[in-house]
Amino acid sequence: MLTWKDIINYSVKGNPLPDKRVEKTEEEWQDLLTPEQFRITRNKGTEAPHSGALCSSYETGKYSCICCETPLFDSTIKFNSGTGWPSFTQPIKENAIKYHKDTSFGMLRVEVMCNTCDAHLGHVFPDGPEPSGLRYCINSESMKIVKERVSDEQ
Ligand SMILES: [Zn+2]
């Protein structure tokens, strides 16, 4: 389980290696994404709180990167933070996410990005619920939910 100390280490000393990399040009991303998705993921934008489609959704499934479809979070680690953005306590896999020290707007924060394609996802804060104490605050527009198939077989 990742803790705040691990996150700080990653943001200072370097991130874990991803399983694979997806790299595209600005134009290719623009063709793939809606303008709002492009603004947030490729230009580090933020959606308005409570605006995101995934904010109040608690359907079972995996949350994947909107850009490269790499699974990032699981619905079992989603929680209601009351902030207006989808919130998670852990990534689905330790190397799914990369961390970057963000000093914009005069604040010291840790930006989280997709480790596969560098899509901006949101930020992580050390004020989440136990046991990890982490709160990944993620834009809905950066992700899509891949619902789990319900099996009817006996
Ligand atoms: Zn990605």
TrEMBL record:
InterPro entries, sorted: Met_Sox_Rdtase_MsrB, Met_Sox_Rdtase_MsrB_dom, Mss4-like_sf
Catalytic activity: L-methionyl-[protein] + [thioredoxin]-disulfide + H2O = L-methionyl-(R)-S-oxide-[protein] + [thioredoxin]-dithiol
Active site annotation, chain numbering: 137
Pfam family, one: SelR
MsrB domain ranges (all copies): 26-148
First-tier enzyme category under EC: oxidoreductase
Keywords: Metal-binding, Oxidoreductase, Zinc
Cofactors named for this entry: Zn(2+)
EC number: 1.8.4.12
Signal sequence region: none
Sequence positions that bind Zn(2+): 65, 68, 114, 117
Cofactor descriptive note: Binds 1 zinc ion per subunit. The zinc ion is important for the structural integrity of the protein.
HAMAP family with a match to the protein in the record: MsrB
Family per record: Belongs to the MsrB Met sulfoxide reductase family.
Name of this protein: Peptide methionine sulfoxide reductase MsrB
Gene, per the UniProt record: msrB
